[in-house]
Design a protein that fits this description.
By secondary structure, the protein is α/β, with parallel strands linked by helices. The protein contains 13 helices and 15 strands. The chain is globular, with a radius of gyration of 20 Å.
Length: 337
């Protein structure tokens, strides 16, 4: 079968590899499309993937082969999450499913950038969901990233009428704002690109500003929404420059939610701000099975719009799609097979 494999830093190659066998109690999925996640790009560009790995985890496709599982049948259109928690460890018992050792160890191999992939019994029972007929493949492929945003919003305990600043308007920032709005909060955003700021008006954000400097953005939030500053600030930008802005814009006693990969040597918060102003700093990594289920329902109910967030790309053009994403020429690539 045709697949994309990792062949060294910054490079993917389309090759032929064997089709996966049907796992006991699991299924083989015929992939129709897979979204290109920012975390995939980070791992590709930083050389984190092992040679020969097939990336991709924002998967939509059809059940091609299945064993004795009675909940699915051949031909069912599905989305598949790639991590499964054990539900029994100290992390799972405290709701930290993404910290579960099994969660981090489980994966779908090969990943979604190939024609067929195998899912285990555990995946089939917990992180594979049927897609309603009304939902197109393009929207269904956003199930995992929307679930990631849902998890982050719950982690930050966003409440009705909170003032929330989203820093960075890539596809995640644009999804995050919609999820926050669904929770009843006021959503303010900032970015460097005019076209992304314009897009927030279509997606229901309360305001969006072009970034110039930390003081101006912080001042706009205080002047137009809440004198004390933002109740919550979400970092959806991988730029280290967003970190000082977050502490500047947050109100005393506010919360900063980090949902971006910034290298440790570049990252840094003003410790005295966190201490004297009693700021809460949180990270959010990956969704639970329940988050995936809720995410698909939000997409089905058209609470979350994804139609302006992607560009279709052929599997053979994936390296160009990565370049275009990194150069901000597109928001997100939707890789079709």
């Amino acid at each position: 079968m045709k697949a994309v494999v990792y062949r060294g830093t910054k490079q993917l190659e389309v090759v032929q590899i064997p089709e996966p066998e049907l796992p006991e109690g699991g299924a083989v999925i015929k992939v129709t499309a897979c979204g290109l996640c920012g975390s995939d790009i980070v791992k590709i560009r930083q050389g984190i993937f092992k040679d020969g790995a097939v990336p991709g985890h924002e998967i939509v496709g059809y059940i091609h082969k299945i064993g004795e599982n009675s909940n699915f049948k051949v031909g069912d259109r599905v989305v598949a999450g790639h991590h499964v928690p054990c539900f029994n460890c100290v992390f799972c018992k405290n709701g930290n499913y993404s910290m579960c050792r099994q969660f981090k160890a489980t994966n779908i191999n090969p990943g979604g950038f190939c024609e067929y992939l195998a899912v285990s019994r555990a995946h089939l029972e917990n992180t594979v969901f049927k897609v309603p007929d009304s939902v197109p493949d393009t929207a269904a492929s956003f199930t995992e990233p929307v679930a990631c945003c849902l998890r982050a919003v719950k982690r930050a305990d966003v409440k009705r009428d909170d003032v929330v600043l989203v820093i960075g308007l890539g596809s995640i920032g644009l999804i995050m704002g919609q999820v926050i709005k669904h929770f009843g909060a006021k959503v303010v955003a900032c970015d460097l690109l005019d076209e992304r700021i314009q897009l927030t008006r279509e997606l229901g954000f309360d305001a969006a500003y072009k970034y110039t400097n930390d003081g101006e953005i912080s001042g706009l939030v205080r002047a137009n929404f809440q004198q004390e500053g933002a109740d919550k600030v979400f970092l959806a930008s991988g730029s280290a420059k967003s970190l000082p802005l977050a502490t500047s814009a947050a109100r005393d006693g506010g919360t900063i939610l980090v949902f971006a990969s910034v290298p440790n040597y570049e990252a840094g918060f003003a410790n005295n701000d966190i201490y004297y102003r009693e700021l809460t700093v949180l990270g959010s990594y990956s969704p639970s099975p329940d988050d995936l289920k809720t995410s698909l329902q939000l997409i089905t109910d058209e609470v979350i719009r994804t139609d302006r967030l992607y560009k279709p790309c052929q599997l053979e053009d994936i390296n160009a799609a990565i370049d275009d994403t990194c150069a901000n020429r597109i928001l997100k690539a939707y890789i079709t097979l």
